[in-house]
């Protein structure tokens, strides 16, 4: 009689984590940044039908990297949770923290279950507050842990390099055009340090705008509005590089 093959629990969990990380790394990265009037989501996505960013509730947005069918199931579950809680109690009782806890339980249960493979997804749940100090951003890796982020966060294949780039350059109070330009610069950097151009039609951009008069703060930025924002920041950058009148007189 042959001896059953044994794998220690630690090795099994390490193998599952490595499997999930490799799956997430195959997807394109995305970034979430705070700016003066809210939170902006930016990612490279050539598809106009399959979205990485979505609205969950009035002031809450959802971003995900990894396998589309898996994070789409999680998104739909989050919408149902938010709708039920808002209807049963009050709309103000639907928070990013509560939603992050629900996602953490789901991802953690799947990750620790030996009966199914772990989800190859990494999530970001963000909520815009009435003031910048009230903004909340939570990152949820494949194992269901919750990381409370501030300022900027990147998930996906090249997340470490992008996060390092953003940490050095992101600042509080940036305009939407400045934050968008920074996000595109971070996403355009390859692993070898070179930069490539990402055209506007390959970008997916959305915002949680606290200044919107509507109760729902989520809005997609597409088409001419996106091009204007990118061009406006380029024009402002070029203007700062020009010599001043005083310098030219000298």
From TrEMBL:
Record function comment: Component of the proteasome core, a large protease complex with broad specificity involved in protein degradation.
Single GO MF descriptor: threonine-type endopeptidase activity
Known regulation of activity: The formation of the proteasomal ATPase ARC-20S proteasome complex, likely via the docking of the C-termini of ARC into the intersubunit pockets in the alpha-rings, may trigger opening of the gate for substrate entry. Interconversion between the open-gate and close-gate conformations leads to a dynamic regulation of the 20S proteasome proteolysis activity.
Keyword tags: Cytoplasm, Proteasome
Similarity section: Belongs to the peptidase T1A family.
One GO cellular component term noted in the UniProt record for this chain: cytoplasm
Pathway it works in: Protein degradation; proteasomal Pup-dependent pathway
GO BP terms: modification-dependent protein catabolic process; proteasomal protein catabolic process
Localization of this protein: Cytoplasm
PANTHER family: PROTEASOME SUBUNIT ALPHA/BETA
Record-given protein name: Proteasome subunit alpha
Assembly: The 20S proteasome core is composed of 14 alpha and 14 beta subunits that assemble into four stacked heptameric rings, resulting in a barrel-shaped structure. The two inner rings, each composed of seven catalytic beta subunits, are sandwiched by two outer rings, each composed of seven alpha subunits. The catalytic chamber with the active sites is on the inside of the barrel. Has a gated structure, the ends of the cylinder being occluded by the N-termini of the alpha-subunits. Is capped by the proteasome-associated ATPase, ARC.
């Amino acid at each position: 009689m042959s001896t059953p093959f044994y794998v220690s629990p630690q090795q099994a969990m390490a193998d599952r984590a490595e499997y999930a990380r490799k799956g997430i790394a195959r997807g394109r990265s995305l970034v979430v940044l705070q700016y003066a009037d809210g939170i902006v989501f930016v990612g490279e996505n050539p598809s106009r039908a399959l979205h990485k960013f979505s609205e969950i509730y009035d002031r809450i947005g959802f971003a995900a990297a990894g396998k589309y069918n898996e994070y789409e199931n999680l998104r739909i579950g989050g919408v149902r949770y938010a709708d039920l809680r808002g209807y049963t109690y009050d709309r103000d009782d639907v928070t990013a923290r509560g939603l992050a806890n629900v996602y953490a339980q789901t991802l953690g249960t799947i990750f620790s279950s030996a009966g199914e493979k772990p989800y190859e997804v990494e999530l970001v749940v963000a909520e815009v507050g009435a003031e910048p100090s009230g903004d909340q951003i939570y990152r949820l890796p494949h194992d269901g842990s919750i990381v409370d982020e501030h300022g900027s966060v990147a998930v996906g294949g090249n997340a470490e390099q992008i996060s390092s780039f953003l940490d050095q350059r992101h600042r509080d109070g940036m305009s939407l055009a400045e934050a968008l330009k920074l996000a595109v610069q971070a996403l355009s950097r390859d692993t070898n340090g070179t930069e490539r151009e990402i055209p506007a039609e390959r970008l997916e951009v959305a915002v949680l705008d606290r200044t919107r008069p509507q109760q729902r703060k989520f809005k997609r930025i597409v088409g001419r509005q996106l091009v204007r924002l990118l061009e406006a920041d380029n024009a402002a950058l070029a203007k700062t590089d020009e010599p001043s009148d005083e310098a030219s007189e000298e």
